[in-house]
Amino acid sequence: MNTLTRQALLGVIRFQVILAFLLFPPAWSLHFWQAGVYWTLFFLVVLFITLYFLKHDPALIVRRLHAGPSAEQEKSQKIILTIISVLTCVMFIVPGLDHRFHWSSVPTSAVVIADALVLVGFLIIFFVFKENSYAASTVRVEAHQHVITTGPYRLVRHPMYVGAVLLFLATPVALGSLWTFPVAFGLVGMIAVRLLEEEKYLVRTLLGYDSYCRKVRYRLIPYVW
Question: For position 59, which CATH number holds?
Answer without folding.
Answer: 1.20.120.1630
